[in-house]
Design brief:
CATH architecture: Roll
CATH class: Alpha Beta
Shape: globular
Structural class: alpha+beta
Number of helices: 3
Low-confidence stretches: none
Largest sheet: 6 strands, mixed
Order of helices and strands: HHEEHEEEE
Mean pLDDT: 95
């Protein structure tokens, strides 16, 4: 399911991507309003993100860790988000990702996701050139 999530992001396939989220998803992101609740809000946020790219999105997963207990699971990983932005900027940024899942009717769905970017503690600016 996490692989389908990444593939959907790479392909900018919003319907495939949204199929892995529960209706009551709570998504914390690095862009305002910082918290997106429900599939409509999360869908709009992903469409906004997809539209920032001219072409496909590069998304690589590293250091994936998954823990499962019964019908609840969580995963944390690093993602390298890369590609050419619509403004012509070529950028590759490492982000932290935590995903919480529940098994609902024999299907695993994401109920919570949290994305963050490393920051400089001296001035709180984003550190977009950090590497693992």
């Amino acid at each position: 399911m996490l692989d389908r999530r990444v593939e959907a992001c790479r392909a900018k396939d919003i319907d495939q991507l949204m199929s892995v989220y529960s209706d009551d998803i709570v998504y914390f992101d690095v862009v305002p309003p910082l918290q997106f609740i429900g599939t409509d809000a999360v869908r709009r946020n992903f469409v906004r993100w997809f539209d920032e790219y001219d072409g496909p999105i590069g998304l690589e997963t590293q250091d994936l860790s998954v823990a499962v207990n019964g019908d609840v699971a969580f995963a944390h990983m690093l993602h390298l988000d890369s590609g050419t932005r619509r403004n012509g900027l070529e950028l590759a940024v490492w982000v932290h990702s935590t995903v919480c899942l529940r098994r609902l009717d024999d299907q695993w769905l994401i109920t919570h996701e949290h994305i963050s970017i490393p920051h400089d503690p001296n001035d709180w600016s984003a550190v977009v050139d950090a590497k693992p």
